[in-house]
Each structure stands twice: as structure tokens, then as C-alpha cells.
Amino acid sequence: MSNIREKILSVLPEAVIEDGDIMRVTVPDAKWHDFAKTLRDDSDLAFDFLVTIVGMDWKENGMGCIYYLTSTKHNTHISVKVMATGDREQPLIHSIHDLWAIATIFEREVYDFFGIIFINNPDMRRLFLNIDWKGYPLRKDYDADPAINPVSIENERQTDFTDVWTEDAEGKVVKHERRIFKPEDFVVNIGPQHPATHGVLRFRTAVDGEIIKKIDIYLGYIHRGVEKICEGLTYPQTLHFMDRLDYFSAHPYHHCLCMAIEEAAGIEISRRAQVIRVLMDELSRIASHCLFIGTYCMDLGATTMLFYTLRVREQILDIMEKTCGARMTFNYDCIGGVMQDLHPDFVKDVHALLDVLPANIKEYNKIFTGNVIAKNRMENVGVLTRHDAISWAVTGPNGRGSGWACDVRKCEPYSIYSELEFDEVVRTEGDSMARFKVRMDEMVQSARIIEQLIDNIPEGDYCVKVPKVIKLPAGNWFKMVEGCRGTFGVYIESDGTANPYRLKLATPCLPAAAVVDHITDGQKIADLITIGGSLDYIVPDIDR
Questions:
Q1: Which site in 34, 55, 372, 379 is 20 to 30 Å from 503, CA atoms measured?
Q2: Spatial separation of the C-alpha atoms in residues 33 and 119, rounded to whole Å
Q3: Angle in degrees, CA 343, 344, 349, rounded to 5
Q4: Rounded to an integer, what distance in angstroms lies between the CA atom of residue 277 and that of residue 259?
Q5: Structural domains in the chain plus CATH codes
Q6: pLDDT tens digit string along 168-184?
């Protein structure tokens, strides 16, 4: 990191650098865009992956953003703090949408909740909230009176126009209006009540005959303000929301939030709890991929496959139910370890799963993967290049299907993953079939991990003693894990009280939905179902 420090100071001497697990660099907004371009393009830095943008309101100290960046070349991390200029009526930061494609969506999210305007961003509409929403909910002075924003009983109002702020020759910020669709475009709705959108997600799609010209995604139909709610809760109370994001595979999310809190509080958990957490994470991954395979095949007309894959998923949920007491919202990981010890049947039941899993996977491949219809529908459809996957922050099996080795368990090992033998599954085709096959092969690797642990679960406490009231010291922390759908990150900022000052959840499904417009351009409308399904996004994970 000393080399990065020297490089940064040579490029921007006025930068303020703070050391920590992830170096933080504070730069003035006037220098931000040029500095960001250097961070991305300089070969010694090469920060090409924008993980997330954390909007912040520091009350009287102003508003701003914290950008988390990763170099896929050097496997290094950095955070950049940029304070907004202007006042609370019109806070301004220069956009970086031209450097990282995903920044367009990330900046819209910050604008939606904080009202920070990003100069030169081509689309400054709200992202999750209704276009008529009054106020910015994540500001500390937000008025939550429901009378200000009554629930609408009329149809959703929409507009084909967006605001764009640019600078004129004198440096004055000027607002323009830009049209989303052209007047002659033929626009159809797919969703929000469409089975193949896998939830209440809406694609406004401009088509020319059967060919897709543009997709405008509408989000927020089930936005519940999780990050805002967490600001009024204690740290243990925030945990159960992790079940309600990626509700098909919540264990890794719990794991991430617990690790972030434990690291901040200086809590060291037992070896037994670490092994149990990893076992649950990998069982979740197999169950999640089974559900993906079954529902995706059903999207393409292979209805029977759902019943084949649900056999394994139900077997795993039976195992979970005995230990966790639930089949979906487990709420199992807790600060200090796990809620309760493993059920006496756990080892026996997991061995029974491992005994049948290879034959089941072979069966899936025989029935579907080699099917000529499946090949015609999926191969060379929805191709996402490695460069675009990184620029759009498309991680997990979707990124690895495009040749990007982005598995957090390998590139930034956490818990006990560095001790385990398993292969990172990477394919280079970048199409819908590659994304499908990556998930199929990842089930085999998850089984390898489970096999190494299931007969070696150490004795000890399943949960260590923690303070009755958990207060984190003032500061900030950022942790990432490999969720079943990609990189999941948690940012915590503490002011020293028992409640998080800010809890930001960086989920993998928002980039997966955002990239749909890019990889469907010029494809047929029938292929939208194939492409969207292959990305395996979960709508509550997007909306939060």
C-alpha cells in the first residue's frame, strides 16, 4: 500500500490519506474526475472495478460520497471520499459514469436517497422511489411524516424525460431535460407482473419488430428502506434483514454483516462457529443454484427440470430446518457465532446429500445442458465480455462466466476459506450458457468444500459471549463475501453509539439488472427472457 500512497501523492499532492484495512483518500470534487481516471487507467493502480458508492450525510459537516474501488489486476483496494460542493438545497459532485458503466446506476441511487446531483450524469431520475416523492430519506434531517408522502392509490406516474446537469463555459451548473425514448419508439412493458422477471421488476422496452433497441429498468416496487430502518436499530436487530434481501440464500449475507460487526467490536469467534458458518454458506450455494437451474429451465419451457432440482433443494432445506428452525428466513448467524448448535442429525443428513448430489448433477446435464434446443436458445445469446462485466460490476457466476475470476473466497479469503481446496469456476464464452454452466460446476465445488469439513467439525462453543449492548467505536468498516449471486458488501459507519450511523448494503443483483439493457441491445425480444433469467437476479436484493 505504500507504493499506492506514493503514487497517489505524486498525482494529487493535496490528497489526504488515512490508513486502515482499506486506505481512504479524500480528494476535492474539482479534482475528482481527473483523479478517478488516473486511478482506473494508470497501470500501477488499475482500479477498474467500482464496488459501490456510499452516499453520506455528515450533518453540519456536509454531504458526500465514499467510493470503494478494487484493482482486478493487482487485487488491491482503495476508498475515496469526495465531499459535495454547493449547499443542502443543491449538493453537487462530478459524475464518473464515463469511467465505470455501473456508476450511472449507483449515482442515481445516491441521488434518490440523498439528493446529491452528479454533474454530467445522463440520467438523474430517482431509481427506487416514485418520481413525485418529496424529500431524500437517507438524509439525517428527513421528515418521515407519512402525510408528506401518502401511499398512491392511482396508477404509477411515469415520464420519458430526465434531468441532466452540466457545466457551461463559466463553470455554472445548468439543468437540461433529456428524453429517454425517442418520440417514434415503440415501447412495450415487460413486468412488473411477468413471471419471467422473477419478481416485481419492470422493463420498458423499445423494439423494432422483434429486435430490442433499448431497455429502461424500473425498480423499487418492493423497496422497504432497509438501510434507513437499520439506523434506528441496534446492531443485533439489523441481522434479520439479511434474510429478506437474497431470501433464497441468506446465510452468506448474515456471515458478512456479522464479520463486519465482530471486526469492529474486536470479537473473535470460535473455530466451531467458523466451520458451521462456512458449511451453511456452501449448502446455501447448492440450494440457490438448484433453484436457479429449475426456474431458468422453466423460463425456457423445460418445466420438468424444476421438479428434478427441487428434490435436492428440499433435501437441503430439511437439513436447515432441523438446525435453524426455518426453511427460508433462517436468521442463524449472530454476533459471536451462530444462534444454536447443529442438530444431532446434521452430519448424517449432509452425508446423505453428498451421496446423491453427483448423480443428480449428471442427470441435470443429461436432460438439459446438452439439449439441442437449450443450446440454440442459450449459446452466443446475451454475450457479456470480461471488460464489460468489470465495468458494470457484474460479479459472481455472471462475472466468472465472462472470464473474470472474481470469487471473493479466492481473491480476498475470509473465515477459513484460505485453508480449503476448491477450484474457482471460470468460463470465457460470456453467454447465457456459460453463466448456466458456471453455476452447475460451482455446486460440485461447494460439495468439495463440504466434504472437507463435515467430518472435521471441531468441538467448542457455537457462540462466544458478547456484551449485552454492542457499541462499536467511532469509525468505518467495509467487508465483502461471496454471496450466491456475487459480491456482497457491507459498509458500517459508527458514531460510537449502539446504532449504526450508516449501514450500506452493496448487493450483487443491482448491477445484474442494470446490465440487461447493455447485453440485450440488438437481440430478439424472445431472448430477453433467456438473458434475464441467466443473470439470476433477485428483486428484493435489488430494491432493499
A1: 34
A2: 10
A3: 85
A4: 11
A5: 1-180 (3.30.460.80), 226-543 (1.10.645.10)
A6: 877 788 888 888 888 88
